[in-house]
Amino acid sequence: MSSGLVRIALECEKRHRSGTKLFHEPKWTMYCNGRKCGYAVSRGGACKESDWRVLNTVYRVTVGAGVIPTAKSIDYASGGGKELGELLYMRGRFERVVGTRDSEAFYMMNPDKNGGPELSIFLLRI
């Protein structure tokens, strides 16, 4: 984000069942500033213990970004262990704009009220 605006588009394919809500789509293709950069899969909506740990860590933060140290278990051939890692987070105020039932957008609003959003996230069903 230090280089300017970031636009993330998550696209999913339209399936034959038309009653599925946009957030309940299971598979997404991710584009960042127009370049295809990966895939995303829905985890089903329920928070795991590790998710609650992160949310409890950042609940007092209203706006900002940072790094949370994490430890993940590794199943080594010699008997397991722990590896230290980092989790990057960003928290801010987002405005939600619903276009149709197949498109939504989230714009992270700058707290200074200067200029437009620095981060835009688009959800599209095509």
UniProtKB/TrEMBL annotation:
Top-level taxon in the UniProt lineage: Eukaryota
GO aspect biological process, one term: hydrotropism
Pfam family, one: DUF617
InterPro entries, alphabetized: MIZ1-like_pln
PANTHER family recorded: PROTEIN MIZU-KUSSEI 1
Protein name, UniProt field: Protein MIZU-KUSSEI 1-like
Species annotation: Brassica carinata (Ethiopian mustard)
